[in-house]
Design a protein that fits this description.
about 400 residues; mainly alpha
Length: about 400
């Protein structure tokens, strides 16, 4: 799939920006996958980590040393005997140092030359937070080894198909399979094919939309293109995990068949949702419940968690760290119309069910279900238009 995308100049991997011939990197990845298929599951992480240590310098050049140093630092920080908040702060400060250094010390050409590092680096922030916090929550006897932590931070799909997806170490370990069942392999191959189709659509539908006269149809086509762009890198990386022996879910569960915004939040990019809940919402909720009603604490914790975990880290900080002109990215994401649309979306997710015990929903007729889905999609499309199109494109 990566070969096809590369020839069509739709490659989502690092191989187009690699400092070594792409066929060499393809060969190393294929050899690692073949070794995993025949090796015992206990040796799979060591094989893949070894392949990552070989591929990283081929992709990043000398900058791979920066990645290795950060991974080693995070592993040490996760084991340090200091408060968790201090560990998270140190890991975050070390992470920020690289984007700041790129911006202050490198010109535009040099920044473009290090974009491979920046893209791989984007996936490290949430991973560092997850590693620190999950290691703290685990029982001492069950904590993973340094080798498992290194594999988690330097997993091969992060380098070949980099993605900013906060998959937790616990989930990755739970999804590891002792064998290589054909069903998982076929599911990985099918998802890879779907990712290839999404990649092709992502880069063509915007051009198609510009030549469509009816405004509603043009916006619908553009919407499909942006959705494809948001998913194809994730699907490529998850497909690679499956083909390497990790039966990871795709990250999306038919989100536009949702009947409410709360359901949509559970279906759309639920890796980000899981990180928002685990790393931000639940710790905040425990503190905010002191002196507040359960409903007020739930709503306040949810707003803060989505603001910090989804908007500031996922939507704002990472694009700014990749951009040659971070101020333009910040201006785009902080546009008042866009922010208003996002607040409305958060409110529709949080408020209707916050602090209310879930009740078993009565059975719905098919017609009512279809109307609920249509109503949700209509409101969501309006909010999407406000966020992604804005006043300057109306």
């Amino acid at each position: 799939m990566l070969v096809v995308l590369d020839r069509r100049e739709l490659d989502v991997s690092m191989l187009r920006m690699a400092r070594a011939p792409a066929p060499l990197i393809y060969g190393i990845v294929a050899a690692a996958a073949a070794a995993c298929a025949f090796a015992a599951a206990a040796r799979r992480r060591a094989i893949l980590l070894g392949a990552s240590l070989v591929v990283a310098p081929l992709v990043l050049g000398a900058w791979a040393l920066v990645l290795f140093a950060y991974a080693a630092s995070v592993i040490a920080i996760a084991r340090a005997r200091i408060r968790v908040i201090a560990r998270v702060a140190v890991a975050g400060a070390l992470w920020v140092a690289v984007p700041v250094a790129r911006r202050l010390w490198l010109d535009g050409v040099a920044q473009a030359d290090t974009i491979a590092l920046a893209i791989v680096w984007a996936g490290q922030l949430y991973s560092a937070f997850y590693l620190i916090i999950e290691r703290e929550r685990e029982e001492p006897a069950l904590r993973q080894s340094a080798l498992a932590d290194a594999f988690y931070l330097l997993a091969l799909p992060r380098l070949v198909a980099p993605f900013f997806q906060p998959i937790s170490p616990r989930q990755l370990a739970r999804r590891e399979r002792t064998g290589m069942p054909f069903r998982m392999i076929w599911r990985g191959a099918g998802l890879a094919g779907y990712a290839a189709l999404s990649a092709a659509l992502a880069w063509t539908l915007d051009d198609v939309a510009r030549h469509i006269a009816p405004w509603p149809l043009a916006m619908a086509v553009r919407f499909c293109g942006l959705y494809a762009r948001a998913t194809y890198t994730i699907f490529t990386a998850v497909a690679m995990f499956r083909l390497l022996g990790y039966n990871m879910p795709s990250g999306f569960r038919q989100p536009f068949l949702s009947r409410s915004f709360a359901e949509f939040f559970r279906r759309y990019n639920y890796y980000v949702r899981g990180a928002v809940l685990s790393l931000f919402y639940f710790p905040l909720l425990g503190r905010l419940r002191i002196g507040r009603s359960p409903r007020a604490a739930t709503i306040l914790a949810a707003y803060i968690a989505i603001l910090a975990g989804s908007f500031l880290l996922h939507d704002l900080l990472v694009p700014m760290s990749l951009a040659i002109e971070p101020s333009s990215v910040a201006g785009h994401y902080l546009d008042p119309v866009r922010v208003t649309g996002m607040l409305a979306l958060w409110t529709l997710i949080i408020v209707p069910t916050a602090g209310i015990a879930p009740r078993r929903a009565p059975p719905r007729s098919r017609a009512r279900t279809i109307l609920s889905i249509a109503a949700f999609n209509a409101v969501y499309f309006v909010l999407w238009y406000a966020q992604h199109v804005g006043r300057g494109h109306r």
